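Troubleshooting log. The previous structure file for this entry was overwritten by mistake, so regenerating from the original sequence record. Sequence copied from the archived sheet and checked twice against the printout by T.R.
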Amino acid sequence: MDFFNQYIFPTLIMGSFAGSLLYLVCARMVYDHLHEHYRDALPEKNEIAFGDADDGMGVYIAAVWYASRTGGYKRIQSNTWRGFYTVTRVLGAFTGVCLLLLCASFFFWTELKTFLA
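Regenerated output below.
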């Protein structure tokens, strides 16, 4: 349990918070590149849940997801930007896993204590 409290738990917290901030910045940069060079790879109208503004950070993430689902990202010709797009997607997955494990550790705290004891 000491190993979890000293190493894994802080890693999950830092991975969740720092990863979220980095993911927001990276998604915005990828969105700006797609918007400037491959406008038709993005959705015609930015819509996300709860009626956020068109320039909200969630819109950029939703637009990058849209480009992933439709395959619009494959049109990126620059290897640098395609690599950055891949890094952004991996960072988003890492952040999601950290958040999921962090929430699961709180939900199953007693089971985790008995398992690691």
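The helical segments are 2-37, 57-70, 79-107, 109-116. Archived copy saved in two places this time.
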